[in-house]
């Protein structure tokens, strides 16, 4: 792991220790670590991506796993968000990190992506590498990354259109889009 990755992980771990559940804007933006998976078989709906290639866009990372009902109950809101911001410099990247062995099987993940009608890129993180690089602990967790590749906000938990959390996330995204 690079020095930046270790620094990022240590900062997120310290945040996690300080707050049992953190949600909202970070006081100090942190550099987002580069995606850990670069092979074609680890990506769906896209060739392998890099955060560097996404510079100039606001990115929402969605850490999920397909048997997590909190995760898939958030998908209608994500679909609505993607439609609302379709003409903006915004993208969602799913990070599928499995909880159970059957969630590690590529064909099973593909079937669920089709079932849930996910059209955004999804990276399989079967070995929890990116999960650990981000210091993540929960499904689902949403990370907002600004146009310069820095994590600016973290939101944890099931999210529905119109909810307080959805409005906060959407507000943060719009602020980042206007920077």
Structure, explained:
It is a single chain. The protein has helices spanning 3-18, 69-72, 75-84, 106-115, 129-134, 164-177, and strands at residues 24-31, 43-44, 58-64, 90-96, 122-124, 141-145, 150-156. The chain is an alpha/beta fold. β4, α4 (106-115) and β5 (122-124) form a beta-alpha-beta unit. The N and C termini lie far apart (30 Å).
Write the layout of secondary structure elements.
Elements: H1 3-18, E1 24-31, E2 43-44, E3 58-64, H2 69-72, H3 75-84, E4 90-96, H4 106-115, E5 122-124, H5 129-134, E6 141-145, E7 150-156, H6 164-177
Parallel strand pairs: 3-4, 4-5
Antiparallel strand pairs: 1-7, 2-5, 3-6, 6-7
Pfam family, one: Redoxin
Domain Thioredoxin: 26-178
InterPro entries: Redoxin, Thioredoxin-like_sf, Thioredoxin_domain
Q: Brief overview, please?
A:
It holds the Pfam family Redoxin. This protein is an alpha/beta fold and about 180 residues long. Helix content is about 35%, strand content about 20%.
Mean pLDDT: 91
Q: What is the 3D shape?
A: globular
Biggest sheet statistics: 7 strands, mixed
Q: Return the structural class.
A: alpha/beta
> Which regions contain 5 or more consecutive residues with pLDDT less than 50?
13-21
End-to-end gap: 30 Å
The share of residues in extended strands comes to 15-25%
Q: List SSEs in N-to-C order.
A: HEEEHHEHEHEEH
Helix content: 25-40%
Protein name: Redoxin domain-containing protein
Domain Thioredoxin: 26-178
Pfam families: Redoxin (PF08534)
InterPro entries: Redoxin (IPR013740), Thioredoxin-like_sf (IPR036249), Thioredoxin_domain (IPR013766)
């Amino acid at each position: 792991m690079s020095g930046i990755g270790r620094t990022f992980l240590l900062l997120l771990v310290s945040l996690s220790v300080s707050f049992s559940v953190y949600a909202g804007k970070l006081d100090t933006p942190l550099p987002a670590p580069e995606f850990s998976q670069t092979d074609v078989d680890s990506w769906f709906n896209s060739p392998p991506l890099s955060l560097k290639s996404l510079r100039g866009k606001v990115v929402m990372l969605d850490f999920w796993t397909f048997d997590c009902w909190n995760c898939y109950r958030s998908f209608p809101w994500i679909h609505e968000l993607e439609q609302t911001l379709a003409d903006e410099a915004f993208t969602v990247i799913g990070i599928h990190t499995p909880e159970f062995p059957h969630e590690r099987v590529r064909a099973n993940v593909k079937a669920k992506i089709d079932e849930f009608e996910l059209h955004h890129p999804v990276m399989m993180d079967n070995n929890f590498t990116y999960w650990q690089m981000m210091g993540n602990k929960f499904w689902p967790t949403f990370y907002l990354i600004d146009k310069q590749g820095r994590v600016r906000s973290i939101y944890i938990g099931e999210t529905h259109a119109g909810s307080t959390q959805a409005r906060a996330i959407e507000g943060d995204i719009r602020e980042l889009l206007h920077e």
